[in-house]
Amino acid sequence: MVQDDISAFWALSAEAVMEELATGAAGLSESEAGERLRRYGSNIPRRRKQPKDLVLLLSQFRSPIIMLLVFAALLSLYLHQNLEACLVLAIVFASGLLGFWQERTAAGTIARLLAMVQVRATVVRAGSEKEIPVESVVPGDIVILRAGDIIPGDCRILESRDLFVNEAALTGETYPVEKTTEILPEDTPMAERRNSLFMGTNVVSGTATAIVVHTGKETEFGRISHHLELGRPETDFERGLRGFGYFLMELTLLLMVAIFAINVYLERPVLESFLFSLALAVGLTPQLLPAIVSVNLAHGAREMAALRVIVKRLASIENFGSMNVLCCDKTGTLTEGAAKMHAALDVDGRENQNVFLLAYLNAFYETGFTNPIDQAILSYRQPDISGFKKLDEVPYDFVRKRLSILVSREGEKLMITKGALRSVLDICSSAQTSDGTVEIDSVKENIQKMFSDFSSRGYRVLGLACRKISGESVTKDDESDMTFLGFLIFFDPPKEGIARTVANLAGLGVNLKMITGDSKLVAATVGEQVGLRKSIVLTGSDLRKISDEALQRLVRDVDIFAEVEPNQKERVILALRRNGDVVGYMGDGINDVSALHASDISISVENAVDVAKDAADIVLLEKDLNVLIRGVVAGRKTFANTMKYVFMATSANFGNMFSMALLSLFLPFLPMLPVQVLLTNLLTDLPEMAIASDSVDPEYLVRPRRWSIRLIRNFMAVFGLLSSLFDYLTFGALLFLLHATTAQFRTGWFMESVISASMVVLVIRTRRPFFRSVPSRYLVASTLGVGAATFLLPYTPLGRLFIFTPLPLSFLAVTIVIVAIYVLTAEMAKSLFYKSLFYRRSAVTA
Q: Which of 593, 621, 649 is at the close of a domain?
């Protein structure tokens, strides 16, 4: 039996499908499930394989420049230049091993973190319900589905109750589709298979039991994703990294071709000139940048996990730090989230036991997703409902904003509807008062006045209505000509200290915006309590009236959006993004999914519905904005340390390579041998590997930061030229003061180049004076270790392999003086650079 054996399972009875899949109501045994998992593989439509160690190692050498370097070294071997060729290959391999070790460690860290927030499915195994990772679901599993669950495979429904499923991801159908168990014709198109459930969709309301028929690549979603490269768009950080890569590639190719051509023109050996130009290109390229980025992100992810923030998508850490607008719901984020019932009132505003009884029946028999409103009603009081029986239900949806339950007692059938007050009033033609039933228009003004009064005090107000029904079932069409009964009043106080938290976010340059389905008055009251601007409140009806262009102009000046529908949340976020903001959205419900997908950085919580948690880049283990603030700071630290490496590597490497390129035009010999150039580049990279653990100055964290290629270019030009200036000072000292031989010249410059590049890391890593910013102990240790190794190398047998020669003490003294002057000059240049118009013009957001 293979998955393809049941191609048209919607045309079979539930019993036939179970028989074909050799399972039953008690589900599979653990041993059988394990065997099927081995047979069919993990339940992942488009499997993102963790690269094997060998593949990861080989990927470190995929750079075209590195491949050319390896080719040239092999050519040297063929021409019997064995020692230099072997040394080149050894250094290239050592650099690759370093990158491999760092990326492998990072990948292991992320795999462990992702396991903490796996999406899970409820299955029946050996007669008992059990939660397992979605990846472990196999054909023949019996799954239990509730509102908010992701469908874990292509399934045939066995039983369902008021089941509505969002299939927009597959069919494009905007509204949830009602599902049934009836057998359908074999030629039924996918969009009309009402007895089937498909991977990639999610339950909006109701419950179901279903049998999994296809998993992984055999599902409809799997077949589509096999042919289409599905994925989220690039993050702001990824775009910046790509732009930086193009910039370096252009500069590197230009330099490499020019140096090779000049050396050939000067009639130097072609192979040696080719190796030299390639070594210069490698020297300019920060080839450890992918490893550095991976290490920084993994280190950031570990730090954030310690703060109870789990990163699902590594690149989102940088966006987290760049975020300058955060949109969130009101309930549970700004408020306690544990709604409590205050009162059940009739139309005249008096406590009414019958109003509460009918509200209790509506909440008790509701079978959709669990929500705090129904929980508040059920915990308020427990009336006697023994005489009532549920007949049918019209589940809540986010367009109607109503929920209807049909109950019967002693032959009388009554439909009870509760929901947003305006939505309930829209379907009422009369109202029940103490004087009897009256026309709704005669009391509507008083109803609105009571609603405004309670809402202005921060209460949430729902409406309740009823209607007698003759049949045994109801639909949305029956929600008409109803009688308004009264109000259900709830309160959900703001979280303690939330105003301070909102102020702290603002202090970090993050503007908080509330997007809620609650009424305008409630939203405005809560917004004022937590410190949001309430001069303008946009409602869902306002959003329907204004164009996208007008919304784009308005959205920056509005902090509160009320009475909004799910698709309008997405529209607000897209308007903010068009303004150039980096937008985060925090949500945990089914109605938040479109907004999560639309945002730059999607944030959910560990107890969110599966479909929201699956859509999120970041998952908070606590629904607390203070946790999120700590995560934002950690993200900014990660971004800061990544940019430190970019600044250090590009400025130091550019300076050294520019010096070498220019000097090679005037010297009768190459200023450094290719193998010495590569060794210089490897040693200068070693301290920078410790950047991930470096401390970050507090002032760098107070506002969002973004990539600026112009800033990198300007920084590289200023500090690269400064590095070159001291290189030429070294050249002059070696040639005219110390009268160095060729070997002494190469050794002396190697020592000055590596030590100065290592020491200047301590200057460039901070905008403060370097002695007022404490680096991490790992950075200090690696810097000192590289410096000591560089001084000692020429005096060891290994130094002779690299064609270095021991230097007299006078050479060492001159080197130390030049490095000291360079560090002090770099400190002064740094201070002037960050104060200059040259910097401000290039770093508006950097």
A: 621
Residue 116 lies in a domain: no
- Which residue has 């939505």 as its token pair? 423
d(CA 387, CA 385): 6
Q: Given phi > 0 = left and psi -120 to 50 = alpha, else beta, which region is 509?
A: left
How many domains would you assign to the chain? Answer: 4
Could you tell me the pTM of the whole model? 0.69
3-class state of residue 581 by DSSP: coil
Q: Which of 149, 154, 162, 329 is catalytic?
A: 329
- Summarised one tens digit per residue, pLDDT across range 693-740 is 889 999 888 888 877 777 877 888 888 889 889 988 999 999 999 999
Pairing of strands 325-328, 583-586: parallel
In sequence order, which ranges of 366-407 are alpha helices (DSSP H)?
A: 372-380
CA distance 463 to 422: 8
Q: Is residue 130 part of a domain?
A: no
How far, in Å, CA of 394 to CA of 375, rounded?
19
Q: What are the φ and ψ backbone dihedral angles of 24, each rounded to 5 degrees?
A: -150, -170
Q: What angle do CA 628, 502, 705 make, to 5 degrees?
A: 60
C-alpha to C-alpha distance for 647 and 625, rounded to whole angstroms: 33
* CA–CA distances in Å: residue 660 to residues 87, 127, 545, 768: 20, 74, 65, 31
> How confident is the model at residue 552, as a pLDDT?
93
What CATH number does residue 517 fall under? 3.40.50.1000
200 DSSP assignment: T
CA gap 202, 165 in Å, rounded:
6
Rounded distance between C-alpha atoms, residue 302 and residue 308, angstroms: 10
Task: For 545-575, write each residue's pLDDT tens digit.
Answer: 999 999 999 998 999 999 888 778 999 999 9
Q: How far apart are CA 837 and CA 653, in angstroms?
A: 25
- Residue 170 in domain: yes
| 557 is an active site residue | no
Closest to 125 in 3D by CA, of 6, 14, 32 = 32
Q: How do residues 306-327 score in pLDDT, each as one tens digit?
A: 778 888 777 777 778 888 999 9
- For 597, the domain range is 311-335+495-621
The DSSP 8-state label assigned to residue 608 in this structure reads S
What is the pLDDT averaged over residues 358-369?
88
Q: ∠ CA(60), CA(64), CA(65), 5° rounding?
A: 90
Q: Which contiguous run of DSSP H or E holds residue 62?
A: none
CATH of the domain at 12: 2.70.150.10
